[in-house]
Amino acid sequence: MKKTLYTIAIFTLVSCGNNTVKEEAEIKKVVYAIIGSQSEGELKTFNGKSQSGTENALSFRTNGMITDLKVKNGEKVKKGQVLAKVDTKDISLAYDKVKASVASAKSQMNTLKSSLDRTKKLYQTNGTSLSDLEQAKNAFKNAEANYNNSIKAQNIQGSQFEYAKIVAPTDGIVTAVNASENEFAKAGTPVIIVNSIGSDLEISVGVPESFISKISNNMAVEIKLNNKTYQGIVTEVAFSVGNNFTYPVIVKIENPSDDLRPGMPAEVTFNIETQTEITETKLIVPVKAISNDSDGDFVYKLVKKDGETFSAEKVLVKLGALNDNGFEIIEGLKNGDLVATAGLRSLYEGMIVNLMQ
């Protein structure tokens, strides 16, 4: 009987120990924000669309029927890769004709050169007149010029074979194919659009007339794209209005990820200075981070502990004005502090937590 009771007690003790280990392992994860300083200004968000910083509209340099279209929309291409060709039968016939002209001109030039050499010898022995010598020289010069011109014509006609091909000017991705095989293509009409691949993705955004004067190059912006937030910088500000009666502004994404593509809708937020032109920087804390009790307004500041753990510390704060980003912090926090922004009621002083990534 005693042995049985002893066994049960040990089982109970071990079970309690396992629960304790499990509770310690399951540390609460909290949503947080980093306290930062912001310039006094007004945040304005405008819609835009992502685009490649380098877009190449490729076309043939000669007319012809498309006989070979090697790429499709969305396909990656390498620099120097042949993307399309047009029929070269007419080009080949014209090249053969010019080539025959070169041979004829060369033969005529050689004949007149021999005639000039004979005339020179006769003139030296008084066997012909100076007038005959001058005529022979002029005939040879004309034949030589005709030969040189025919060589140039041959080179130009030979380049038509290259004009009959579309070659990728850079590594990139095909974003549009505007023709198909057995279709007649006119010289200069874009057939394939290739956007470059890399870190040059940018956003084109339309800004209304009332705000365009407050936007300038190198201005930092925030971009929301594909459900993620990115930092950007203004690289171009249009001087005249665009097609949709707004001023086009180009913003470069500073840290693009591999899942971004041209053509994605985006939101660009500008921090536009107010008319009072106040440039003083102020600490801002999100509204969701503020709680209050009998002691006043407070936040849970997250202080780094061992490894990846943080301690939640209750810090009283003195609040200033409320703006679109949150409350101004007058006292209690400093730039770079971390504060919890969700689940505040479940937190307590000294609680060990992890950051929600």
Task: Write up what this structure looks like.
The structure is a single chain. It is built from 4 helices and 25 strands. The protein is α+β, with helices and mostly antiparallel strands. The protein is rod-shaped, with a radius of gyration of 39 Å. Helix 2 packs antiparallel against helix 3 (130-163). 27% of the residues lie in helices and 38% in strands. The chain folds into 4 domains: 26-38 and 281-355, conserved putative lor/sdh protein from methanococcus maripaludis s2 fold, CATH 2.40.420; 42-53 and 199-272, Elongation Factor Tu (Ef-tu), domain 3; 62-87 and 164-195, RNA polymerase II/Efflux pump adaptor protein, barrel-sandwich hybrid domain (OB fold (Dihydrolipoamide Acetyltransferase, E2P)), CATH 2.40.50; 89-162, Helix Hairpins (Orthogonal Bundle). The strands form 6 sheets. It has a 6-stranded antiparallel β-barrel. Strands 1-25-21-20-19 form a 5-stranded mixed beta sheet, with no helix packed on it. It starts with a helix and ends with a strand.
| Through-space gap between termini | 54 Å
Low-confidence stretches: 1-24, 274-279
SSE series: HEEEEEEEEHHEEEEEHEEEEEEEEEEEE
CATH classification class of the largest domain:
Mainly Beta
- In helices, the fraction of residues equals 25-40%
The count of DSSP E runs of length 2 or more, i.e. the number of strands, is 25
The chain-level structural class is alpha+beta
Blueprint of the fold:
Elements: H1 2-25, E1 28-30, E2 32-34, E3 36-39, E4 42-52, E5 55-58, E6 64-69, E7 76-77, E8 82-86, H2 89-124, H3 130-163, E9 165-167, E10 172-177, E11 184-185, E12 192-196, E13 201-207, H4 209-212, E14 220-225, E15 228-237, E16 247-253, E17 265-272, E18 281-285, E19 291-293, E20 296-304, E21 309-316, E22 318-323, E23 326-331, E24 338-340, E25 351-355
Parallel strand pairs: 1-25
Antiparallel strand pairs: 2-24, 3-18, 4-13, 4-17, 5-12, 6-8, 6-11, 7-10, 8-9, 10-12, 13-16, 14-15, 14-17, 15-16, 18-23, 19-20, 20-21, 21-25, 22-23
Helix pairs in contact: 2-3
